[in-house]
Each structure stands twice: as structure tokens, then as C-alpha cells.
């Protein structure tokens, strides 16, 4: 029975293969068909292949059913047939239909096309970088970053005005450094950060009309104020109503205002110093049309120039008034100092005598190498020895409490020696100068043979 069933399937396969062969022979005989004819032929071949696969799967199922019936008949009665595991149903693999868009490209054309794609990618990246600029950093500019880091750490080269910006955004400062020729001085000129804390007070005068003043003050006080302002010239006519006495502005004082301002900002500054500037250049810079022109004070439009002056002076004043000076105390009469005793006078003179002895010895040593100074040197040495003896006598007199006659004698001697030492001190530089002049004359006018 199975043999009879197998014969039709083989015959169908043979017929299918014959039909496929005939189709191929016809295609070869006709040559290369058009693209549409080739697509139609491919679709017909696929449909025929699918129908043949479905027929084969149905035949396999019928054969499996017949085998199961034969096994059931061969079993003895009373025995249960063992369960057969279900057959695995495998789906046929889909045939590759081909992609009409994909084409086989030669190697040369493929390399050129890949190069074109890379070029387009590079161009797109360049356009993106032009729109969104890439900031330089320590990775992209390693060598420049190292130089910048060394300059930042050098206190002699790094400006103090950029310290705050360095601590907040070092990368931004690095990009500014690259843009300004790698010079921190140019960066400091380009940007200066300043922090300012300011206490301010404001005082001034505002123009008010008579009806507004009468609202703030009683009538008598308001009239007295307006008369005072009129006498000082601190008033003016309204521009819309000239020569109208009812529409007159009186400059009345405003309340003082006080506030505190904390500001942080960035500014660009440029400083220049000119040594002995040209008058023409100075006038061009500081003239009314120059960049450094001084601002003019606004006009107050008062009735008279004196009124404008009075209005401006009324706004000036110290913010804190100084304390009034205390009354001078009556000085007590000076006490009369009793004259010192002879012993006290000697004790006060002893230090002067000792200093004279020391100074005379120094002066004698300095004049030893000077010509014509031999006599003065000997006199100074003698004076030094005598003053030392006088100093010793004064010490003994003060310690032992000698008589007044001895004290007076020591005071007279010390006074005489002080007068002589003053003359010797004046004579020493003169001797030195005359000796130098003589030496100079000798070397200038004497010929050496």
C-alpha cells in the first residue's frame, strides 16, 4: 500500500523538475529578458516551489497515519499501544527572495563611495563645531595647558586681578589666555572683575509749588519758607506757565536717604601714562568731544545765578558733625623750681665731661694721618687725659661730700674745658680741609722728573 502511495509523489517531482528544466532552457534560448519579465518569472517559480512543498508535507502526514494503523492491528488484543511522541512539525525555511535595492558594486566603486561618506561625515562634524564651538581643555591642548599652569603658579607673572576668576572657572581663563596671545597681561586688560561694597547717602532739593508746600506745612510756616527761598533766589518759573506767580517752583529740601550697595561685575579698563604730553594731544583727549571729557554739572534753572549757588551749597555738608571742643582748662601756675645745689650741679656735669674725654680721643686718632695736624693731635690727647682726671675728682667729691669751695672749683674747670673742646672741634675739619687742598695743589703744579 505504501509503495502505491509513493509512486505519485515521485512522478510529481519528476514532472516538476522537467518543467523547471524546460523553463531554464527557454530562458537560455531567449537570452537576457527584461527586469519586469525576470521578476514575473521569479514570482511564478516561487509559487510553484511552495505548492510542491505543501504537497510533500500532506503526503508525509498520510504516510504517518497509515503506519500507526498498521501497528495497531499487529498488537494483540488486551494490550494497550505505547504512546508515541508527537511528531515534530518543522516549518520550511523561507526561500531567499533577494533584495531589489541591494546591488553588487565593484571594489573600486565601493572604496570611492566609502570615502565620499567619510567626507560627508567630516563636513557635518565641521558644521556642527562651527555652530557649537569646542572649548580647549587640558586633553586637547596638553602642552599649552602645562605652560598656562606654570604661569598661573608664578606670583611674579600672574596678575592679582585675575585671582577670583581663576578660582571660579580655570578653564574659561585658559581659553581667554589662548585667545590673547598666551599673555596674562592682555587677559587682565581684557577683563577685570571687581567687587564693591558701598554705603551711600543722598540729600538734595526738589521743586515744589506753593499749593504743595501748603499741604505739608501750616500756612504761616509755609509762607515764611517761601519768602526765605524767594530772598535767596532759590525758585524758578514753570516752563509751561512762564511769568505766572501761582505756578512757581520753590526748591525745598528733601529728606536724606541712606542705603547699602553690594555689587559684583566685570569691566574693561585701559590705563595710559604720558610723560611730558603734547599740548595739542592733551587738548584733543580732554576736550568736550574727547574720550576723557569732564562731565558738566546740570543747570538748576533758578531765578538768579546766586540762587543756583545757594541751592548747591545747601546740599553740601558733612555726614557726621564733629564733636564740639571742650572748654580749655585753666592752667595752674607753674611751680618755681628751686636752684640745684652744688652737688647736684656737679653730678649733672659729670656725664658731659666723660663724653668730652671720649670724643677728644676719637678726634685725635682721626687727625693723625693729616698733615699739619700734629700739634692739635697732641693737645687733644692731653685734653682727654685731663678730663678723665677731672671726672675722677668729681666722683670722689660727690661720694665724700666735699666742701662748696671744692665743688665750685670743679665746675669752673669743667666749664673751661667745654669751651676749649668746642674750639678744637671746629678747628679739626678746617685742618683736614687745608691739608687736602695743599696736597691737591702739590700734585697739580709740581712736575715730576
UniProtKB/TrEMBL annotation:
Region: Disordered, residue numbers: 1-120
Residue ranges, compositional bias (Acidic residues): 14-23, 30-45, 53-71
Protein name: Uncharacterized protein
Amino acid at each position: 500500500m505504501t509503495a502505491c502511495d509513493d509512486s505519485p509523489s515521485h512522478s510529481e517531482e519528476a514532472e516538476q523538475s522537467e518543467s523547471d528544466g524546460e523553463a531554464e532552457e527557454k530562458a537560455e534560448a531567449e537570452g537576457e529578458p527584461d527586469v519586469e519579465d525576470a521578476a514575473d518569472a521569479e514570482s511564478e517559480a516561487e509559487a510553484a516551489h511552495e505548492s510542491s512543498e505543501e504537497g510533500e508535507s500532506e503526503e508525509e502526514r498520510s504516510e504517518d497515519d497509515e503506519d500507526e494503523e498498521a501497528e495497531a492491528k499487529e498488537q494483540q488484543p488486551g494490550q494497550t499501544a505505547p504512546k508515541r511522541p508527537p511528531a515534530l512539525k518543522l516549518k520550511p525555511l523561507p526561500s531567499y527572495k533577494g533584495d531589489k535595492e541591494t546591488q553588487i558594486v565593484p571594489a573600486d566603486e565601493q572604496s570611492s563611495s566609502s570615502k565620499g561618506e567619510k567626507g560627508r561625515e567630516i563636513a557635518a562634524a565641521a558644521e556642527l563645531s562651527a555652530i557649537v564651538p569646542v572649548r580647549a581643555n587640558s586633553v586637547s591642548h596638553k602642552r599649552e595647558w602645562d605652560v598656562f599652569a606654570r604661569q598661573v603658579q608664578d606670583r611674579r607673572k600672574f596678575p592679582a586681578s585675575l585671582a577670583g576668576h581663576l578660582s571660579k572657572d580655570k578653564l574659561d581663563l585658559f581659553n581667554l589666555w589662548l585667545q590673547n596671545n598666551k599673555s596674562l597681561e592682555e587677559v587682565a586688560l581684557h577683563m577685570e572683575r571687581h567687587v564693591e561694597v558701598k554705603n551711600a547717602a543722598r540729600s538734595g532739593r526738589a521743586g515744589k509749588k506753593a499749593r504743595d508746600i501748603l499741604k505739608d506745612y501750616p500756612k504761616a510756616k509755609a509762607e515764611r519758607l517761601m519768602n526765605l527761598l524767594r530772598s535767596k533766589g532759590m525758585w524758578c518759573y514753570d516752563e509751561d506757565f512762564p511769568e505766572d506767580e501761582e505756578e512757581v517752583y520753590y526748591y525745598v529740601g528733601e529728606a536724606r536717604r541712606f542705603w547699602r550697595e553690594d555689587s559684583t561685575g566685570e569691566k574693561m579698563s585701559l590705563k595710559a601714562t604720558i610723560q611730558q604730553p603734547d599740548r595739542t594731544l592733551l587738548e584733543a583727549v580732554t576736550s568736550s568731544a574727547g574720550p576723557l571729557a569732564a562731565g558738566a554739572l546740570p543747570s538748576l534753572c533758578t531765578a538768579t545765578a546766586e540762587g543756583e549757588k545757594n541751592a548747591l551749597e545747601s546740599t553740601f555738608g558733612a555726614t557726621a558733625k564733629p564733636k564740639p571742643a571742650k572748654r580749655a582748662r585753666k592752667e595752674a601756675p607753674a611751680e618755681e623750681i628751686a636752684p640745684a645745689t652744688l652737688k647736684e650741679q656737679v653730678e649733672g656735669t659729670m656725664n658731659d665731661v666723660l663724653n668730652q674725654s671720649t670724643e677728644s680721643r676719637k678726634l685725635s686718632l682721626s687727625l693723625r694721618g693729616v698733615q699739619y695736624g700734629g700739634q692739635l693731635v697732641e693737645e687733644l690727647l692731653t685734653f682727654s687725659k685731663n678730663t678723665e682726671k677731672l671726672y675722677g675728682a668729681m666722683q670722689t667729691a660727690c661720694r665724700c661730700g666735699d666742701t662748696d669751695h671744692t665743688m665750685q672749683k670743679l665746675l669752673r674747670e669743667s666749664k673751661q674745658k667745654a669751651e676749649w673742646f668746642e674750639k678744637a672741634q671746629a678747628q679739626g675739619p678746617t685742618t683736614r680741609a687745608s691739608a687736602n687742598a695743599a696736597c691737591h695743589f702739590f700734585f697739580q703744579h709740581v712736575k715730576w722728573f
